[in-house]
Amino acid sequence: MEVFESAFRMNSWSSEKSCSGLSVSLVPTMGALHRAHGELIRRAVAENDLTVVSIFVNPTQFGPAEDFKAYPRDFESDRELCEKEGVDVLFSPKISEMYPNGAESGTEVSVKEISSFMCGAHRPGHFDGVATVVAKLFNVVRPSRAYFGLKDYQQFQIIKRLNSDLIFGIEIVGCYTVRESDGLALSSRNRYLDKQQRRQVPYIYKALLKAAEQIKNGETDGTKISFFLKEFINKHIDGCKIDYAGAYHAQRLHPLKKVEGEVVLAAAVWVGRARLIDNLAVQKK
Ligand code: PAF
Fold this sequence. Notes:
alpha/beta; Rossmann fold; 6-stranded parallel β-sheet; 3-stranded antiparallel β-sheet; globular
């Protein structure tokens, strides 16, 4: 496995491989790799000739009060996992490589409307940071396919739209959420939870499952679904703070008053210093 820090070297490698007719895939990550990243990587390795994993903790997607400095970093174990999974290149650029003219003042990519709902309403600028860095990674690596986890449902929709709006022509592949046996979605931020919090947080997913059941049984009132989710989560997770919980349009992501068509149930909940997100797609005929 090669490890590149330079965007230029990464791009030259990728161009050469693509010119030789080999398909190059990209799995963008911020490191602290866990089993869910392992699944993305395994799928990319299985479906493509070559796989690049990028590890870059992107400063522009963290708000001033968020955990950029504290975000878990473990390069050696990340490198081992990638090597074991048969990754061809680990791209691990420095900030100056991805933001050669500084991170604050220059070009920004913003996918406007769908960035304004759900997490976007609570993390101003977050998705502009994500869209900007993903566009840069796409430019540097020029993959034919890129793999993202569906746990970050809004991010996935934003990247699909960015790919289409900026005519990258990349196949954007969404991979199902990987869960612990009690239903908790895997996340690098789960390590912030203490024992009691860890015992209680599966109630986020349980709430989504129960709401999906209500919808299947005929509930169509989005306000009632949102109220149920909030009440259930508050009841089972001590001291949590809910950023949002409700039923959203599966592509446009706005909150639904009437639950119909393709729907995503989603929630973002602060538990201690961990902000946990989860979602569940529901088809309402
Ligand atoms: O999902 C993530 O880990 C990040 O948001 C991403 C897509 C790698 C961009 O920094």
